[in-house]
Structure formats: structure tokens, C-alpha cells
Request: fold
Amino acid sequence: MERKESGEKLKFADNLFINDSTDVQKGEPSLNRLLLSGIAVQRNDKEYIQYLANLVESSDDAIISKSLEGIIKSWNKGSEKMFGYTAEQAIGRHISMIIPKGYSHDEKDIINKINNDETIAHFETVRVKKNGEQLYVSLSISPIKDQAGNIIGTSKIARDITSLKKSENELIIANNELAFQNGEKEKRAAELFVANKELVFQNGEKENRAAELIVANNELAFQNGEKEKRAAELILANIELVFQSEEKEKRAAELIVANNELAFKNEEKEKRAAELIVANKELVFENREKEKRATELIIACNELAFQNRENEKQKAELIKINGELKISGEQVKEINQELESFSYSVSHDLRAPIRAIHGYSRMLKENFETQLDPEANRLMNKIMNNAKKMGQLIDDLLNFSRIGRKELVKVSVNMDSMVANLCYEFKNEKGDQNIEFHIGELMAAEADNTTIRHVWLNLISNAIKYSGLKEKSVIKIGSEINGQEIVYYIKDNGAGFDMRYADKLFGVFQRLHSDEEFEGTGVGLALVQRIITKHGGRIWAEAVVDEGATFYFTLKTIPS
Amino acid sequence: MKEEVQILLIEDNSSDAEMTINALKQNGLANRLLHLKDGAAGIDYIFGEGKYAGRQVEDTPKVILLDLKMPKVNGLEVLKKIRADERTKRIPVVILTSSKEDPDILKCYDLGANSYVVKPVEFDEFRKIVSELGLYWMIVNQQAL
Reply:
């Protein structure tokens, strides 16, 4: 800054008056005193003025002087820093340059107060910087008077309080916020109080519940014990199940194999099914045929049903008759037993007196033979013969009755050797008779050995007896097969018989010859017929008188 | 020395007994024969009881001819008693009967009869059988000692 250009300034500075009450921050007590004392010193002292100017220049506060019209007259370094204008840019311009819109009345108020010779201290307001930025400032304004005491301008000291203001504003906002939060907290406290009561109530409830839970707990503890036992059992069961599982796995493996096998079989079955379909068609055809046949059969069935009913009627009758037969079967058994004891009596008690008759007659004849005449001897012989015949008759009758009752024991009978033996015995016995046997093949039969031997014995004996009057007895024996039966025959060349009486041949005590011709009791053939009939066979005879007789009988063949 | 009985005939039928004795006589076998008419008498003799008290049981006959059908004590009972006694069980016993229909034939053998003979009606035959019997048991058969 050039001193020359500030001629007015200097002049102004000449008039400069520093108010005692101005708060100069950096001002030192010595300086204040100096300033105060300066008023008392000469105003023209240039050195002093320069000192003052430097003082102003070095202040951080903005120190501005202006005319009453508002034209800026001085602009220190502090102003430059604060508002961004240089002294050259600011001096000569109107102060409104740093007054923002809406604050222009500030300046008027200030001027009014200054005009009234008032000092304005710490007036807080807003100013604007060159770059448009607004800032809070604290203003201290004093009038500038000339030597005559007329107010010619004002001095203004501005201090930036933006940061202070800002903090202040922030505090207010924060305060409001706190106040708001306080309100909120009180509400919350009230709510918490309500909630507290609720909790107290709930606590009570919970204590009740806790007591219940203790009871329940005990119960659960007991159940737990039980469950542990059960668990122990389950562990055992588990082990068993594990074992079974393994078994089942094995089985499953086997089943898989079996499954495969079944799958294979299934295929086979499908093939078979295909074949069956073909066969089915064939069957359908056959079925139709069968239905036709069935219709015919139904007709036949009805006929059979009718016949069946008839059969049932007959069956019912047969059952009735059978019942009757059963009763008589029991009666037969009884009669048989009676017959047996009767037979014994007859054989024992009848034989004894006959034996006595015969015995005594014989003794009489022997001991008194010389004393008896021929006629007496003849009569004695008659008595003995009749007694002997009586004994024979009794024996034959008993045989007949015994064989009739006898149970047959059927075996394979060798007829060849049986007949051969009998013929040999007879030939020896009847040595004086000329007998010729012709024995053909005799087939074996299923028969009772003892009784069949009796049949042959009787028939051969008869053949010999009835051919006894011939010069030579010729006896032929043989057999033939006739279906399921064997026909045996024995043929002699003896007396034969009249075929008209053939039906009497097999009757008991029936004889076709007199006792004088041929001895006999008439029991032999009756017994033979009885034996053959019991075997399920037949017996018959053919004869020609004086030429001979042929006896036939049949027996069943041996089942192969 | 007292004569021992060699043949004891126990038979109720007097005719049969006479014929039997007659037959044995012809062969000289009837000299030491005793005929008793029923089973009770037979037992008395054999065991030295009753009428025969004091008789020595050990003096046994060589053979007993025993009829089956008798009053009081029958032949089977007599046989049973003889076989049950140690002193008499070895005496040969021949059963003489009239009938081959007798239901007791098997019982006789079961009880230890030595023979079973049916008496024939014809006397010649009867005599023949009895003679053979006598000869066999008296002479041929070797007795147990």
C-alpha cells in the first residue's frame, strides 16, 4: 500500500478516535494505555499515526470505516481475509456489497443509532463473502467524528462467529433432539412400568407353573427310569433285530436269486401262454361239440335220475332185509354153537352104547361059539354089522357137520402130488382089485388143502367102489381151463347111474344104489358138494348105467 | 412084597372098562390092573388120600388110562393134579375117549397128556388098539426113574 494514495486516509487517521470501550482482543494493556494516552498526545505526530495504522492492519478482526452514505473508506487485512475482497476492490464501494438480501434494514438501524450517537456493541448478524458464502459476524460499530464533533462516518469491527453460531445451532438441534428423546423415554418408561406389572403377574403364574412342573418332573423322572429299563430291553431287542436283519439280508439275497429264476420261468410261462391261446381256440371248438353232447346227456341224465329213484326204493328195501339178515346171522351163530355141543354129545354118548353092543356081541360069539348053532351065529353077525354101520353113520354125520362149519384156509394146492399119493394108497389098500389109473395134468388151484383132499379121497373111493364089479377098474383123472376156473374130472367105468335121478345124487342120506349092491351111508357126496360150494365152485355128474360115471367140479385159478 | 399096580384105569363106563380089561387080558397085561370108577377115587389113590390113605405116593403105576367124561371130577382135573405134583408129574397118562369131536383134545395135550386115543365102535379094532397101547407103555416105553 502506498502512502501517497492514502492522503485522505491519513487525514482520516488524523481524526481517528478509538473508543475506550472497544474490545480489542489482541490489544495489550500497554497498547490501550498508549492509545488512551495518544488521545492526549499530538495528533500530528506521524510516527504515532503509522503505529496506529499498523495496529489496525495487523488485527485478525475486520476493521472497516465508511462514510455516512455507506461508502467504504478503509479495509484492513482482516477484512480481506474475512470477506475475500482486497482493499483496492472494496474501498470506494458501498457497504451493501457484503450485506445479504433481507439484511439491508440492519444498515439503516445502525446508521440511525449512530446518528443518535450511540455505540453498537456485539450486534450479531449475517454478512456475505465475495464468493457468496454467508457467515455469522459479531459487529461493534462506533461513530467517527471530526474535530468539531460532527459524525462523518462509522467504524465497524467485525468478528467471524460462524463456527460459534454453527455449534450453537447444532446444540439447539441436539437439545431438541434430546428433549424429544426424553419424551420418548418417558413414554417408554410408562410402558415399561405397565410391562413390569404384567411381568410380575406372569412371574406369579410362572411360579405356580414351576410347582406344577416339579410334580410333572418327578413323574417324568419316574417315567425316565421306566424308559431306561425299556431302553435296555430295546437294546437287547435291537441286537436281536440286527441279527434278524442280517438273516433277512441273506434271505433277500436268496430271494433275488429266486426272483431271477422266477423271471426266467415267467418267460417260459409266457411262451406257454401263447401256446395255450392256440390250444384254447381248439378247446373252444371242442367245447361247442361238447355242449351239443351235453344236451344229449341231459336227456339221458333225466332218464337215469328216474332209474336212480327206482334203485333207491329198492336199496331201502334191501337195507331193511339186510337188517333182518343180520339178526338171523347172530341167530345162526347161536345155532352153530348148539350144534357143536350137540355133535359132541352124539359122538360121545351114542358111540359108547353101540361100542358096547358090538363088543359084547363079539365076546359072546367068541366065548360061546361052539355052543351056538349056525342061525344064532348068523344073528350075532347081523347085530355086530348093524352096530358097526351105526358107528360109521355117526362118524360120517359128524364129519359132514364139522366140515360145513370149518373155516377154509386157501393156499395154492398142488393137485398133481395130492391125487398121485391118494391113488398110490388106494392101490395098496385094495390090492385084490385090478385098478388102472390114468392121471392127466392137474392144474394147481387156490383152495383149502384138508377139505379138497377129502373131496379127492371120496371121489376116487367112489370110482373104485362102483367099478369094483368090473373085471378091471379104469379111472381117468384130469383137468381143463375154462376161463377163470379149472374144471377137474374123474371118470370111471363102473355101474354108473340113471341120469333121471341125477338131482338126488348130492342129497344127504340119498342113495341111487342099494346097500346090498354097494355099501354106503349116503353122506359122502353130500359132503363133497358142500366143500366145493364153500370154495365157490360147482359140482355135477354125467353117467350111463353100467358104463360108468364122470364127476366134474370147478375151482378158481390162482391169481397171477 | 406087596404087588404094585402097573396099570391104573380110571373109567366111569363099566362096559368100556370091561372091554378094555378084556383086551388087556388077552395079552396078559391085566394082572396088575386097578380099575377106579371116577376121578375122585383116582385122585385118592394116586395121592394116598381118603380110602387109600397111607399109600406110598412114590409107588407110581407104569401108565394111567384116563377117561375124560366122568361125574364128580373129570379127566382134565385129574390130569392137571397129576402134572402139578413133583412126585407124580412123570407118570405116563393116556386119554381114552369116545369122541374125536371133544373140544378138550388141545387142553389135554397142553396139560401134558402122553396120548389121546378115540375108542372105536368096532370091538376088534378097539381090542387091537388097547392091546397095542398096553404093550407099548408096559414093555416098550422106558420109564423115567
Notes: Chain B touches chain A through 20 residues (CB under 8 Å).
